[in-house]
Design brief:
The chain is built from 2 helices and 4 strands; from the N terminus they run ββββαα. By secondary structure, it is of the alpha+beta class.
Length: about 90
């Protein structure tokens, strides 16, 4: 949800409001009560909610490689044997 900035034309009070894009703009100033709030033009601010946004969220196939992943896969190859490896070598 975007965070909008408002400024009262009557008293100069400034505030931020967390609103849906579809919500009607605020009009009444919480400080003086006058219907003189105007939206300020500012950089968009928003809050990410939920489990998180990650680099891999919108990638498909083998494009999901992350920086440092190649060093991890190298460590797995040279590391301790897995139960699957032990079973293959036991025969």
């Amino acid at each position: 949800m975007p965070i909008y900035e408002y400024r009262c034309q009557a008293c100069g009070h400034e505030l931020e409001a967390l609103q849906k894009v579809s919500d009607a703009p605020l009009e009444d100033c919480p400080e003086c009560g006058e219907p003189a709030l105007k939206k300020k033009v500012s950089a968009a601010g928003f809050r990410l909610k939920g489990g998180g946004w990650y680099e891999t969220d919108f990638k498909s196939g083998k494009k999901k490689n992350l920086a440092g992943e190649s060093s991890e896969s190298g460590a797995k190859k040279g590391g301790a044997e897995t139960p699957k490896d032990k079973a293959a070598g036991a025969g």
